[in-house]
Amino acid sequence: MNKVIVIGSGFSSLSAASYLAKEGLEVSIFEKNDTPGGRARQLKRNGYTFDMGPSWYWMPDIFENFFQDFGKTTSDFYELERLDPGYQIYFKDKLLKIYADLDKLCNTFEEIEKGSGKKLSKFIAKAKENYKIAIGKVVMRPGKSPLELVTPETAVRVGQFLKSVSDVIHKEFKDEALRAALEFPVLFLGAKPENTPSFYIFMNYADYGLGTWHPKGGMYEIVKAMVSIAESNGVKIHTSSAVSKIKVSQSGKVEGIVLEDGSFLEADFVVSGADYHHSETLLPKKYRQYSEDYWAKRTFAPSSLLFYVGFNKKLAKTFAHHNLFFDTDFKAHASDIYDKPNWPKEPLFYANFPSASDESMAPKGKEAGFFLIPIAPGIEDTQELRDKYFNKIIKRLEDFYGESLQEHIEFTESFCVNDFVSEYNSYKGNAYGLANTLRQTAFLRPKLASKKVSNLFFTGQLTVPGPGVPPALISGKIVSELLLKKSV
């Protein structure tokens, strides 16, 4: 029986391990931290529960497909609720609610800009077509060749790879708030809308069409479900087991791994779901595919400054489960991330109050608050800066709430660039991997299979298909299929 070692236990690693074990391979996972899940960890404190990483449940079909591959459904493990509104966007002069009902949302658009309701309906219909092509024809391919992108469906849409998301949206919609709302979903791909091919408007269907959901108990319920799937198929998961080396034979074939305690573990195959750049540093230099210069020139998705806050009062009458604060200059903040990396003067931010729809996430009568400010990877991270930006966003929250919130804070914990590096070995402390720009799409992303080491594979957000939880599940499945072809 072929032995497979998987480094890391994030969504892509758990996915790959499960598929490989299902096919009869002997699979072991080695995770640096003390709980499985990678960046999808959970913080529990004083009766409050926080998802420390991913907090948006989009593309429910991708999750369902994963569990069905193992003869299960999501409902076997957790209870899903579709949020309505899916989220709220706060602008300086208006509040836009993204309703679950598309007709209602079209009416909302129409009230803001005459004619935009019908335009939105047509836009989402087009996005739905792209979604079907993307999920059914493109993202399940391993990124080996540009020909993978050539299908009868994509061939007639080649222009969508030459125009940007912003080009398409700005042509049809004039109101800045509506433009920002339509550009928001592609931010999950990690790049500015003006640098993202318009084909990716399929993310608008993932949002407005398929909806925003919440698994009761939080996103960590998905991790627990995937751990259950993995272990039921024979995967052995070892936590608090950091890997210090990937060993390679003189003939250039992977031999196994060395743990930080010095112990060597033999394997026929190694799959790393850890940060791709970090994974290659575990190899001797001659076996690394990508130089430091290569990584330095990539466009990375943002890092994040995160806060986990316990409030001793309910805030849900004002705020929804998901809230976006776009009450400052979107372009200025984006420029501070991508063009001239710097701390933003007045940042946009995201506020998540999971207890607004799930009472299990906070003590009765209280509210759990999770806040995220997108920032450039690799910038300075100090406690002084964290405090400064926490005060900025709390002040803006108070402006919308209408009264002081500082006095109702029981505790605050933060997580930023330095923590992404120390906890996840993340390159420059990035939070989401490589951005899906035109030059970093599909076959132009770092490869799933090492070109220099036989039987060494990679999975996750820095390789195919890209950032996000659903793509991570897909990445694990694709890499398992590549490995299985070699194990025969």
List the keywords.
globular, 15 helices, Guanine Nucleotide Dissociation Inhibitor, domain 1, alpha/beta, five-stranded parallel sheet, FAD/NAD(P)-binding domain
Write structural notes for this entry.
It contains 15 helices and 19 strands. It is of the alpha/beta class. Among the domains are: 3-39 and 59-70 and 217-297 and 436-487, FAD/NAD(P)-binding domain (3-Layer(bba) Sandwich); 102-210, Guanine Nucleotide Dissociation Inhibitor, domain 1, CATH 1.10.405. The model has no long low-confidence stretch (mean pLDDT 94).
Provide the CATH top-level class of the domain at 3-39 and 59-70 and 217-297 and 436-487: Alpha Beta
Give the neighbour order of strands across the main sheet: 7-6-15-16-17-14-18
Assign the CATH architecture of the domain at 3-39 and 59-70 and 217-297 and 436-487: 3-Layer(bba) Sandwich
Q: In CATH, what is the homologous superfamily of the domain at 3-39 and 59-70 and 217-297 and 436-487?
A: FAD/NAD(P)-binding domain
Shape: globular
The structural class is alpha/beta
The mean pLDDT is 94
Chain-wise SSE layout:
Blueprint: E1 3-7, H1 11-22, E2 26-30, E3 42-45, E4 48-51, H2 60-68, E5 80-82, E6 87-90, E7 95-98, H3 102-112, H4 116-138, H5 152-155, H6 165-172, H7 176-183, H8 202-209, E8 213-215, H9 220-232, E9 236-238, E10 243-248, E11 254-259, E12 264-266, E13 269-272, H10 276-281, H11 292-296, E14 303-311, E15 322-325, H12 330-338, E16 349-352, E17 367-375, H13 383-401, E18 409-415, H14 417-424, E19 456-458, H15 469-487
Helix pairs in contact: 1-9, 1-15, 2-15, 3-4, 4-8
